[in-house]
Write a structure and sequence with these properties.
Strand content: 35-45%
Structural class: mainly beta
Distance between the termini: 9 Å
Largest sheet: 7 strands, antiparallel
Order of helices and strands: EEEEEEEEHEEEEEEEE
Shape: globular
Number of strands: 16
Mean pLDDT: 82
Amino acid sequence: MIRTHIFSFPRRIRLFVAFVFCGGLFSAQAAELQSLDASISSSVLGNPVTQWTDQSASGNHALAQIGNVSFTGAPVFESGLPGLDFGPDRNSLELFSSAESDAWLDQTNGNGFCVFVALKVRSLGENIINDILGNTSGQNSGFFALRLTNNGSIRAFLGSQVVTQGGVRAMPGDSIILSFRYDRSTSEFRFWDSKNTSAAFAAV
């Protein structure tokens, strides 16, 4: 069983986030749980950001949690798209409440889930945890996180399992897409990133 208590952006690196998608695993059964898109400027309320409005039908808006996340609408990605700036401090948005994250990350009777994130790294913190997305910074049985190490290694965690993408590391200035997929039928997760263009796997 996968069970968590909160799902958020715990920020300790400086990066821009352009897009987040959370949904079901298979297209025939999938439901969009959340779709956050910074290119829809009207979906980002306030500066500092108070709400990043969910574009799916689920109504799971991301809300201010810790510190200040900024948004000017200015292009920050090579594509010319804007992104939310999480700054150099520990700033975050809460993507799901405790009850909401419990409901979809508890896969006892589920089919699985997938998460996509588009981001741009501005800097890496030294000797600290560089979380991108997750429910806690501490590894335990209910742990889920996507993370960069202080030397740029790209990692994914689920439960007690961790995978580290080999070869190419993230560097300041990089634009990266992350894809995480958990398949309940095989109890396996697949983690892919656009820097390494390859997938890592682990059984949970």
